[in-house]
Design goal:
Elements (H helix, E strand, L loop, with lengths): L2 H15 L4 E2 H8 L3 H10 L5 E6 L2 E6 L11 H9 L1 H7 L6 H25 L15 H13 L1 E9 L4 E15 L2 E8 L4 E6 L3 E10 L9 H5 L2 E2 L2 E2 L4 E8 L3 H4 L9 E5 L2 E8 L2 H10 L4 E5 L1 H23 L10 H9 L4
Antiparallel strand pairs: 1-3, 2-3, 4-5, 4-8, 5-6, 6-7, 9-10, 11-13, 11-14, 12-13
Length: about 350
Protein backbone atom coordinates (compact mmCIF):
# COMPACT_ATOMS: atom_id res chain seq x y z
CA UNK A 1 0.00 0.00 0.00
CA UNK A 2 1.27 3.45 -0.85
CA UNK A 3 2.36 5.63 2.04
CA UNK A 4 0.01 8.34 0.83
CA UNK A 5 -3.03 6.03 1.12
CA UNK A 6 -2.00 5.06 4.64
CA UNK A 7 -1.72 8.69 5.70
CA UNK A 8 -5.11 9.52 4.20
CA UNK A 9 -6.73 6.59 6.03
CA UNK A 10 -5.19 7.59 9.36
CA UNK A 11 -6.38 11.17 8.90
CA UNK A 12 -9.83 9.73 8.09
CA UNK A 13 -9.78 7.84 11.40
CA UNK A 14 -9.03 11.07 13.26
CA UNK A 15 -11.81 12.80 11.34
CA UNK A 16 -14.32 10.08 12.26
CA UNK A 17 -13.25 10.06 15.91
CA UNK A 18 -13.70 13.82 16.06
CA UNK A 19 -17.42 13.13 15.53
CA UNK A 20 -17.54 10.94 18.62
CA UNK A 21 -16.88 7.46 20.00
CA UNK A 22 -16.41 4.72 17.36
CA UNK A 23 -15.85 0.98 17.53
CA UNK A 24 -12.97 -0.73 15.78
CA UNK A 25 -15.43 -2.78 13.76
CA UNK A 26 -17.35 0.32 12.65
CA UNK A 27 -14.12 2.03 11.58
CA UNK A 28 -13.02 -1.05 9.62
CA UNK A 29 -16.36 -1.31 7.81
CA UNK A 30 -16.53 2.38 7.02
CA UNK A 31 -12.96 2.50 5.64
CA UNK A 32 -13.08 -0.92 3.97
CA UNK A 33 -10.08 -2.44 5.76
CA UNK A 34 -9.44 -5.23 8.27
CA UNK A 35 -9.64 -5.01 12.06
CA UNK A 36 -5.86 -5.56 12.25
CA UNK A 37 -5.29 -2.61 9.94
CA UNK A 38 -7.37 -0.37 12.21
CA UNK A 39 -5.38 -1.58 15.24
CA UNK A 40 -2.06 -0.77 13.51
CA UNK A 41 -3.36 2.65 12.47
CA UNK A 42 -4.47 3.47 16.03
CA UNK A 43 -1.00 2.49 17.28
CA UNK A 44 0.56 4.77 14.65
CA UNK A 45 -1.70 7.58 15.93
CA UNK A 46 -0.51 7.18 19.53
CA UNK A 47 0.73 10.78 19.40
CA UNK A 48 -2.91 11.88 19.62
CA UNK A 49 -5.00 11.63 22.82
CA UNK A 50 -7.12 8.62 21.84
CA UNK A 51 -8.83 6.74 24.66
CA UNK A 52 -9.32 2.99 24.19
CA UNK A 53 -12.02 0.95 25.93
CA UNK A 54 -12.88 -2.74 25.44
CA UNK A 55 -16.50 -3.88 25.48
CA UNK A 56 -17.04 -7.59 24.90
CA UNK A 57 -15.23 -8.66 21.75
CA UNK A 58 -15.02 -5.14 20.31
CA UNK A 59 -12.84 -2.12 21.12
CA UNK A 60 -14.08 1.43 21.18
CA UNK A 61 -11.98 4.53 20.55
CA UNK A 62 -12.62 8.13 21.50
CA UNK A 63 -10.64 11.26 20.70
CA UNK A 64 -10.21 13.27 23.90
CA UNK A 65 -10.70 17.01 23.35
CA UNK A 66 -9.02 19.73 25.38
CA UNK A 67 -6.24 17.46 26.64
CA UNK A 68 -3.47 18.34 24.21
CA UNK A 69 -0.26 19.16 26.13
CA UNK A 70 1.61 22.44 25.67
CA UNK A 71 4.48 21.39 23.43
CA UNK A 72 7.76 23.27 23.09
CA UNK A 73 9.60 22.35 19.91
CA UNK A 74 13.37 22.36 19.88
CA UNK A 75 15.00 24.12 16.88
CA UNK A 76 16.09 20.84 15.28
CA UNK A 77 12.58 19.41 15.67
CA UNK A 78 11.03 22.43 13.96
CA UNK A 79 13.64 22.13 11.21
CA UNK A 80 12.72 18.44 10.72
CA UNK A 81 9.02 19.30 10.45
CA UNK A 82 9.52 22.13 7.99
CA UNK A 83 12.12 20.31 5.88
CA UNK A 84 9.72 17.35 5.53
CA UNK A 85 6.84 19.65 4.60
CA UNK A 86 7.15 19.12 0.85
CA UNK A 87 7.44 15.35 1.24
CA UNK A 88 4.34 15.13 3.41
CA UNK A 89 2.28 17.48 1.24
CA UNK A 90 3.41 15.59 -1.85
CA UNK A 91 2.19 12.31 -0.36
CA UNK A 92 -1.16 13.88 0.49
CA UNK A 93 -1.61 15.71 -2.82
CA UNK A 94 -5.19 15.43 -4.02
CA UNK A 95 -6.47 14.11 -0.71
CA UNK A 96 -9.08 15.93 1.37
CA UNK A 97 -6.51 16.41 4.14
CA UNK A 98 -3.72 18.10 2.17
CA UNK A 99 -5.01 21.61 2.99
CA UNK A 100 -5.36 20.76 6.70
CA UNK A 101 -1.79 19.45 6.92
CA UNK A 102 -0.44 22.49 5.08
CA UNK A 103 -2.29 24.78 7.50
CA UNK A 104 -1.00 22.84 10.51
CA UNK A 105 2.62 23.06 9.37
CA UNK A 106 2.20 26.75 8.62
CA UNK A 107 0.94 27.25 12.19
CA UNK A 108 3.98 25.42 13.57
CA UNK A 109 6.23 27.76 11.60
CA UNK A 110 4.37 30.90 12.72
CA UNK A 111 4.26 29.80 16.37
CA UNK A 112 7.98 29.02 16.35
CA UNK A 113 8.78 32.45 14.88
CA UNK A 114 6.53 34.06 17.48
CA UNK A 115 8.25 32.18 20.27
CA UNK A 116 11.67 33.26 19.02
CA UNK A 117 10.54 36.87 18.68
CA UNK A 118 9.06 36.92 22.18
CA UNK A 119 12.20 35.42 23.70
CA UNK A 120 14.35 38.00 21.94
CA UNK A 121 12.10 40.78 23.20
CA UNK A 122 12.50 39.51 26.76
CA UNK A 123 16.29 39.52 26.54
CA UNK A 124 16.74 43.16 27.61
CA UNK A 125 15.25 42.33 31.02
CA UNK A 126 18.30 40.24 31.92
CA UNK A 127 20.79 40.78 29.10
CA UNK A 128 22.38 43.83 27.53
CA UNK A 129 24.67 44.13 24.52
CA UNK A 130 27.05 46.95 23.69
CA UNK A 131 26.34 46.53 19.96
CA UNK A 132 23.25 45.93 17.86
CA UNK A 133 22.62 42.62 16.18
CA UNK A 134 23.92 42.54 12.59
CA UNK A 135 21.49 43.99 10.07
CA UNK A 136 20.30 41.12 7.91
CA UNK A 137 18.28 41.37 4.72
CA UNK A 138 15.70 38.76 5.64
CA UNK A 139 14.30 38.15 2.16
CA UNK A 140 17.77 37.28 0.85
CA UNK A 141 18.46 35.07 3.85
CA UNK A 142 15.29 33.04 3.30
CA UNK A 143 15.92 32.58 -0.42
CA UNK A 144 19.55 31.60 0.17
CA UNK A 145 18.54 29.17 2.90
CA UNK A 146 15.96 27.56 0.64
CA UNK A 147 18.50 27.32 -2.21
CA UNK A 148 21.02 25.72 0.14
CA UNK A 149 18.51 23.17 1.40
CA UNK A 150 17.39 22.29 -2.12
CA UNK A 151 21.01 22.40 -3.42
CA UNK A 152 20.20 24.87 -6.20
CA UNK A 153 22.72 27.16 -7.86
CA UNK A 154 22.21 30.89 -7.38
CA UNK A 155 23.04 33.85 -9.60
CA UNK A 156 24.09 36.95 -7.66
CA UNK A 157 25.20 40.50 -8.36
CA UNK A 158 27.73 41.33 -5.66
CA UNK A 159 29.47 44.51 -4.52
CA UNK A 160 33.06 44.05 -3.32
CA UNK A 161 33.68 46.93 -0.90
CA UNK A 162 37.47 46.57 -0.91
CA UNK A 163 37.64 47.10 -4.70
CA UNK A 164 34.56 49.26 -5.00
CA UNK A 165 33.43 47.06 -7.88
CA UNK A 166 30.36 45.04 -8.88
CA UNK A 167 30.45 41.54 -10.30
CA UNK A 168 27.97 38.91 -11.46
CA UNK A 169 28.55 35.24 -10.76
CA UNK A 170 26.90 31.88 -10.24
CA UNK A 171 27.52 30.18 -6.89
CA UNK A 172 26.64 26.97 -5.08
CA UNK A 173 25.44 27.88 -1.55
CA UNK A 174 26.91 25.66 1.16
CA UNK A 175 26.54 27.58 4.44
CA UNK A 176 25.02 30.72 5.96
CA UNK A 177 27.22 31.84 8.86
CA UNK A 178 26.22 34.51 11.37
CA UNK A 179 29.00 36.35 13.22
CA UNK A 180 29.26 39.70 15.07
CA UNK A 181 30.07 41.53 11.82
CA UNK A 182 27.07 40.23 9.86
CA UNK A 183 25.79 37.25 7.90
CA UNK A 184 28.06 35.54 5.36
CA UNK A 185 27.25 33.15 2.55
CA UNK A 186 29.94 30.50 2.11
CA UNK A 187 29.61 29.23 -1.45
CA UNK A 188 31.53 27.68 -4.32
CA UNK A 189 32.01 30.24 -7.09
CA UNK A 190 31.87 28.69 -10.56
CA UNK A 191 33.77 31.64 -12.03
CA UNK A 192 36.66 31.56 -9.55
CA UNK A 193 36.48 27.78 -9.13
CA UNK A 194 36.96 28.18 -5.41
CA UNK A 195 35.04 28.57 -2.17
CA UNK A 196 34.43 32.20 -1.22
CA UNK A 197 32.68 34.12 1.53
CA UNK A 198 30.07 36.74 0.57
CA UNK A 199 28.57 39.31 2.91
CA UNK A 200 24.80 38.87 2.43
CA UNK A 201 24.17 42.61 2.77
CA UNK A 202 26.40 43.22 -0.27
CA UNK A 203 24.35 40.93 -2.50
CA UNK A 204 22.43 43.47 -4.58
CA UNK A 205 20.42 41.00 -6.68
CA UNK A 206 19.77 37.28 -6.47
CA UNK A 207 18.07 34.65 -8.61
CA UNK A 208 17.68 31.00 -7.60
CA UNK A 209 18.26 28.83 -10.67
CA UNK A 210 16.60 25.54 -11.58
CA UNK A 211 19.85 23.56 -11.90
CA UNK A 212 21.09 21.73 -8.82
CA UNK A 213 24.51 20.66 -7.55
CA UNK A 214 25.94 17.76 -5.57
CA UNK A 215 27.73 19.04 -2.42
CA UNK A 216 29.61 15.76 -2.03
CA UNK A 217 31.29 16.33 -5.40
CA UNK A 218 33.43 19.11 -3.92
CA UNK A 219 35.94 18.43 -1.19
CA UNK A 220 35.20 21.16 1.34
CA UNK A 221 36.46 21.45 4.90
CA UNK A 222 34.61 24.19 6.78
CA UNK A 223 37.17 24.35 9.60
CA UNK A 224 40.05 24.82 7.16
CA UNK A 225 38.06 27.50 5.38
CA UNK A 226 37.22 29.41 8.56
CA UNK A 227 40.83 29.42 9.74
CA UNK A 228 41.50 31.97 6.99
CA UNK A 229 38.96 34.36 8.58
CA UNK A 230 39.65 36.92 11.30
CA UNK A 231 37.14 39.53 12.52
CA UNK A 232 34.92 38.81 9.53
CA UNK A 233 37.70 39.31 6.93
CA UNK A 234 39.39 36.57 4.90
CA UNK A 235 42.91 36.46 3.56
CA UNK A 236 46.14 34.54 3.21
CA UNK A 237 48.64 33.49 4.34
CA UNK A 238 47.50 31.64 7.44
CA UNK A 239 49.77 32.58 10.33
CA UNK A 240 50.69 30.99 13.65
CA UNK A 241 50.34 34.08 15.82
CA UNK A 242 51.73 34.69 19.28
CA UNK A 243 51.22 38.00 21.08
CA UNK A 244 51.98 39.08 24.63
CA UNK A 245 49.94 41.70 26.42
CA UNK A 246 51.33 43.33 29.57
CA UNK A 247 49.48 44.91 32.45
CA UNK A 248 47.38 46.99 32.76
CA UNK A 249 45.95 46.18 29.29
CA UNK A 250 46.17 42.44 29.98
CA UNK A 251 43.53 42.83 32.69
CA UNK A 252 40.81 43.19 30.04
CA UNK A 253 42.56 41.82 26.93
CA UNK A 254 42.49 38.29 28.32
CA UNK A 255 38.69 38.36 28.37
CA UNK A 256 38.36 39.19 24.66
CA UNK A 257 37.68 36.68 21.89
CA UNK A 258 40.33 36.59 19.16
CA UNK A 259 39.88 33.36 17.22
CA UNK A 260 38.32 29.91 17.56
CA UNK A 261 41.83 28.41 17.80
CA UNK A 262 43.06 30.74 20.55
CA UNK A 263 45.02 29.52 23.56
CA UNK A 264 45.82 31.77 26.53
CA UNK A 265 48.73 31.38 28.94
CA UNK A 266 49.13 33.48 32.05
CA UNK A 267 52.45 35.25 32.50
CA UNK A 268 53.88 37.01 35.52
CA UNK A 269 53.24 40.44 34.06
CA UNK A 270 50.40 39.72 31.64
CA UNK A 271 49.04 37.12 29.24
CA UNK A 272 50.26 35.28 26.13
CA UNK A 273 47.73 34.64 23.36
CA UNK A 274 48.27 32.15 20.52
CA UNK A 275 46.02 31.37 17.58
CA UNK A 276 46.21 30.28 13.95
CA UNK A 277 44.44 32.46 11.40
CA UNK A 278 44.60 34.13 8.02
CA UNK A 279 43.74 37.76 7.17
CA UNK A 280 47.00 39.40 8.40
CA UNK A 281 45.63 42.91 7.81
CA UNK A 282 42.69 42.27 10.15
CA UNK A 283 45.00 40.69 12.77
CA UNK A 284 47.30 43.73 12.64
CA UNK A 285 44.34 46.07 13.16
CA UNK A 286 43.28 44.12 16.27
CA UNK A 287 46.82 44.14 17.66
CA UNK A 288 47.08 47.90 17.20
CA UNK A 289 43.80 48.30 19.10
CA UNK A 290 45.51 46.79 22.14
CA UNK A 291 47.97 49.68 22.25
CA UNK A 292 51.64 49.79 23.31
CA UNK A 293 51.22 47.06 25.94
CA UNK A 294 50.83 44.48 23.15
CA UNK A 295 53.86 42.93 21.44
CA UNK A 296 53.94 40.53 18.48
CA UNK A 297 56.22 37.64 19.39
CA UNK A 298 55.74 35.76 16.12
CA UNK A 299 55.74 35.63 13.18
CA UNK A 300 58.23 38.29 12.09
CA UNK A 301 56.12 39.12 9.02
CA UNK A 302 53.21 40.15 11.25
CA UNK A 303 55.50 42.17 13.51
CA UNK A 304 56.80 44.09 10.47
CA UNK A 305 53.23 44.71 9.23
CA UNK A 306 52.16 46.07 12.63
CA UNK A 307 55.30 48.26 12.79
CA UNK A 308 54.60 49.67 9.32
CA UNK A 309 51.03 50.56 10.25
CA UNK A 310 52.10 52.03 13.59
CA UNK A 311 54.69 54.22 11.82
CA UNK A 312 52.04 55.47 9.38
CA UNK A 313 49.75 56.36 12.29
CA UNK A 314 52.58 58.11 14.14
CA UNK A 315 53.56 60.07 11.02
CA UNK A 316 50.02 61.37 10.59
CA UNK A 317 49.90 62.68 14.13
CA UNK A 318 53.42 64.15 13.93
CA UNK A 319 52.31 66.18 10.90
CA UNK A 320 49.26 67.37 12.78
CA UNK A 321 51.36 68.37 15.81
CA UNK A 322 53.75 70.36 13.60
CA UNK A 323 50.88 72.23 12.01
CA UNK A 324 51.78 71.19 8.46
CA UNK A 325 48.72 68.96 8.12
CA UNK A 326 45.43 70.65 9.04
CA UNK A 327 43.62 67.33 8.69
CA UNK A 328 40.36 66.71 6.87
CA UNK A 329 37.68 69.39 6.72
CA UNK A 330 34.77 67.78 8.54
CA UNK A 331 32.50 70.83 8.53
CA UNK A 332 31.62 70.62 4.82
CA UNK A 333 32.08 74.37 4.45
CA UNK A 334 35.39 74.08 2.63
CA UNK A 335 34.02 71.52 0.21
CA UNK A 336 31.02 73.72 -0.54
CA UNK A 337 33.17 76.80 -1.28
CA UNK A 338 35.44 74.79 -3.56
CA UNK A 339 32.46 73.55 -5.54
CA UNK A 340 31.18 77.10 -5.92
CA UNK A 341 34.57 78.34 -7.12
CA UNK A 342 34.78 75.55 -9.67
CA UNK A 343 31.25 76.16 -10.95
CA UNK A 344 30.00 72.70 -9.82
CA UNK A 345 26.26 72.20 -9.68
Amino acid sequence: MARGEQLVRQWSILDLLSEGRKSRRALAEQLGVSLKTITRDIEALSLFPIAEEREGIDVFYQLMHGTAPRIRFEPEEVAALLLSKRTVLGALAGSPYAAAVATALAKVEVLQRDRTDRELRRLPEVFQSSFDLPRIRTELQERLLEAGIERRRVWIRYFTAERGAHSERVVEPFFLRLHPHGLDLIAYCLERRDFLSFNVNRIEALRVRDDTFDPTARAFDLDRFLVTTFDGRRGNPVLDVCIRVKQPTAAWARDHFYHATQELRELGDGVEIRFRSGAPEAIAARILSLGPDCEVVEPDSLARLVAHKAEAIAARYRHRASGSDPGPDLSGVGAKSRREEGGAT
